[in-house]
Amino acid sequence: MKKVTYAADKGGYQKKVVAKSALIYAALILLTLICLIPIWILVVNATRQHNDIASHGLSLLPNTYLFKNIDTLRSNALYTSFFHPIIGMRNSLIIAGSCAALTVFFAGLTAYGIVVYEFKAKGLMFTFIIAVMMVPAQVTAVGFMKLLVSWKLLDSYIPLILPAIAAPAIVFFMRQYMLSSFPLDIIEAARIDGSSEFRTFLTIAIPMMKPAFAVQAIFAFISKWNDYYNQSLVLVSGDYHKNTMPMMIQGVMGIDRNPDYGANYAAIFLSIIPVVVVYLVLSRFIIGGVAAGGVKE
Amino acid sequence: MATAAQRRIKSVSYAKYGYIFTAPFFIVYFIFMLYPLIQTFILAFYGNGESNKLHEAGTCIHNFVGTSNFRAILLGGEDRASRAIHKEFFHYFGNTLIIWIGNFIPQICLSLLLAVWFTDLRVKMPGKGFFKVVMYMPNIITAASVAALFMSLCGNSKYSVLNNFLLNHNYIDEAVQFATNKWSSRIIVMFIQIWMWFGNTMIMLMSGIQGINESLFEAAEIDGANSRQTFWRITFPLLKTIMVYTLLTSMIGGLQMFDIPYMFHTGNIINEHIATVAIFIYDFFHKDYLHPSYGYSAAASVVLFVITAILGALVFYVQRDKDAIELRKKRKAARKEAQRKAARGGGLGL
User: Fold this and answer.
1) Contact at 8 Å (CB) between B348 and B8?
2) Could you tell me which CATH class the domain B89-292 is placed in?
3) Chain A contacts of B21, Cβ < 8 Å?
């Protein structure tokens, strides 16, 4: 008797679970489509001719004009005055790459200094880092601009790269990580073996904290690659030799007379390809990093 | 003997390395962030260089004007120019609030729902990783490209996907100015913000839910609670702290909203219906960067700073318990460590 009820209940329960799972699945697929469709339309339209887009509108199947559109970007004077994907990517790569390297190295060094050593200002330093973590970039922008003008740093990469040394949020993350998974005894052992303090950091601390360094480097890279605000603040001349990818895309949007839609889409397509590829390759790291709370900058 | 040895051990001090290792961070921070921040506060009390356009680049003089920038922005001041500034600031501030609310409420509901689904033990879900990867993807795409993409999808041009579709099917007779009209442009910006950020919020909430003791969910299931009961009685109350944290950080982020509203237009005119406070600040000192109007920008920055500081203080207030407990634990550990070290030192001495 008991067994029968149990079996019947179990059947009902499972039916419910299946129904619920199906419902959730439908919703998730819908959301996935919403996430992907804009990007898919972009990819498709990047492979279509302007006339085709203009007369036929929406299409979900790619065409073969991608390279012709890229040729238009490289030959049409409307685009060549500001849009050079290779130069833009190179500049973005220089800025984002050096920022990522500086950020993780110095954030690691600072966190190491605060965690490992006992000194008077330690508590004060940590409080300071927490306090300034949330100061928005916009608030310092006016003073930053004045500094750039008076020190003649406009149109230079120095003010874009050098400040990456001081990333409070990443120092905070590194400190939390070190406290939870870096045994301090090992430093003691290294000292006994005669390793200098800096060498201990380089050859023992960095390899041991590789996961944290990797995640933060990826985030720093992506956020600097995407950072339009500071780049447009500093690079004021509009010279495409110095401009970065986001600024070139901003230029594409500035065309209001007779744009070639195929070429426009191709330009946007070229600008998002590197980030999307990096993301898809490293997605496991990135999502793990977001879950660990390491994205806020 | 023992005391002499102890003294020798103590004389090896590593404290200086603490200063050496942290020095680069603080030097760079003071030069590139703290100094500009202080400059911003000072410039807020100086003029906008109105009569100094003739000066050479970078040398235009800004006179001390007291609190008149703040009065102009917050109260409207006496003359027509400052009343216009006042109106513009509050218009932009209102836009910021409207866009933030319109993006945050749907976003948190959607993210919470998804986070609960993804962490529900009872729902079997192959491909969970795939969904997470796809839903987080819009967040990593360059904002400039996203703005350009949505401009091509639903911009003013008759060739934009939306207009083209409506025209081809004869729903409309001529292209609708989606990117310029007051509410359509705001809704598009809200949608873009949700599209870009819901994956991020979802993953943060998920890690919050996973932090809840699993045995609570198991106990609830054994006691016969259904999903709704589990959510309202267990997940939601225990998630409150992280929700408030998300709310406050999203507010701080929302106040800085710049990229999408700034770039969602064609040509060179920014749409005033979606212009935010960050654009207000940026415009005044950057439009003519060699003869900038620092004053209004700086005063608006200070206002923004004060609001952010209040929100930031609230974040710490919300998280205070956890931190206090952690601090106490750390102190205890440090004390024990010190005792152990002392004992070890003594032992060595013997």
Assistant:
1) no
2) mainly alpha
3) 109-110, 112-113, 117, 197, 201
